[in-house]
């Protein structure tokens, strides 16, 4: 079967699954070392404990499995019944013991892997799938990247010695480009230039890269991405103001 031209040539389901499997294994190793008390402590997600984060990761696996099953079977099943149900499920599972969280993560990851295999066998990665009934659809090929992002970004949110420094080059490159595109369309994001040290390249967000009237923030790409996503304080970054010299890092809106 010929792939739809709407699927990027760079899409590689097998490679995506390999990254997801590795990220899942790393997360499970971290969670296995957390105690019941530690899971009740705050995460880096405002208003959420570590238990909230872990429940979200597990329910996200099940929700994305629904989308993969839609692609495999043609039967439309939204990711979540509703946003209210999604939030209620996270709240209900947040205070469970560590052993139950770990088992839930393993089992939901297994269901995701099974659904992924079904979607890969069907090959219908151009299928439109839905987060909730009536929501704007995405194509099924976007699901693996979303799952990888949930695993790696929320692993950082556990505040348990996993940081943006652990993100791979490929993940950092993909999500950096995604962040630039996403923030370029948001009215609440300030015009900004980002100087990636290791690339010797300046990227403009709501500004051209040569615009000397716009603040430039310089630093390693992972540190810049962590800051853009609200997962890092900005340590290691330098802001240069148009008048010359260093200034405070611009205040950014939530990744949302």
From TrEMBL:
Domain of life from the UniProt record: Bacteria
Keyword Isomerase: yes
Record bears the keyword Isomerase: yes
Residues of the MDMPI C-terminal domain: 167-244
MF term (GO), any: isomerase activity
Domain Mycothiol-dependent maleylpyruvate isomerase metal-binding, chain residue ranges per copy: 22-158
Matching Gene3D superfamilies: 3.30.1050.20, dinb family like domain (1.20.120.450)
Protein name: Maleylpyruvate isomerase family mycothiol-dependent enzyme
Species this chain originates from: Catenulispora pinistramenti
């Amino acid at each position: 079967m010929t792939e739809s031209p709407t699927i990027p040539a760079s899409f590689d389901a097998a490679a995506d699954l390999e990254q997801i499997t590795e990220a899942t294994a790393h997360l499970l190793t971290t969670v296995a070392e957390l105690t019941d008390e530690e899971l009740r402590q705050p995460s880096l997600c405002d208003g959420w404990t570590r238990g909230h984060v872990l429940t979200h990761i597990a329910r996200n696996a099940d929700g994305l499995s629904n989308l993969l099953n839609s692609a495999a079977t043609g039967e439309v099943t939204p990711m979540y019944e509703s946003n209210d149900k999604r939030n209620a499920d996270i709240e209900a599972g947040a205070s469970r013991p560590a052993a139950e969280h770990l088992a839930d993560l393993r089992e939901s990851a297994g269901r995701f892997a099974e659904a992924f295999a079904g979607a890969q066998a069907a090959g219908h990665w151009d299928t439109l799938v839905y987060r909730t009934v009536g929501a704007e659809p995405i194509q099924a090929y976007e699901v693996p990247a979303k799952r990888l992002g949930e695993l790696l970004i929320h692993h950082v949110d556990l505040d348990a010695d996993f940081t943006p420094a652990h993100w791979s080059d490929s993940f950092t490159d993909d999500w950096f480009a995604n962040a630039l595109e996403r923030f370029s369309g948001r009215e609440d994001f300030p015009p900004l230039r980002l100087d990636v040290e290791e690339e010797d390249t300046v990227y403009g967000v709501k500004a051209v890269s040569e615009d000397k009237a716009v603040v430039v923030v310089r630093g390693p790409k992972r540190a810049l991405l962590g800051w853009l996503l609200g997962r890092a304080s900005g340590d290691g970054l330098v802001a240069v103001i148009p008048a010359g010299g260093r200034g405070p890092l611009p205040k950014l809106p939530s990744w949302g």
